[in-house]
Amino acid sequence: MLSLEIKQRNNLPASISQLSVLQDGFYLSLQRGVDWFAAMVGMPPERKYNSVLFGGLIGSMFSILQFFSSPLTGAVSDCLGRRPVILMTAMGLIASYALWAASRSFGVFLLSRMIGGISKGNVSLCTAIIADLRSPKARSKGMAMIGVAFSLGFTLGPMIGAYLAMETEKGEVFYLRSALLALTFAAADLIFIFFLLPETLPKEKRVSSVTTGFQAAADLLSPLALFRFSAVTQGKEAPSDQNLQNLKTLGLAYFLYLFLFSGLEYTLSFLTHQRFQFSSMQQGKMFFFIGITMAVIQGGYARRIKPGNEIRAVKRAILLLIPAFLLIGWAADVTLLSAGLLLYSFAAAIVIPCLSAVVSGYGSASQKGRVMGILRSLGALARALGPVLSATGSELLEGKRQTSDYSKTRWQNNCRAQHVCCPFLQPQALGLCTFHWSTSVATA
Question: What are the chain's domains?
Answer without folding.
Answer: 2-197+240-438 (1.20.1250.20)
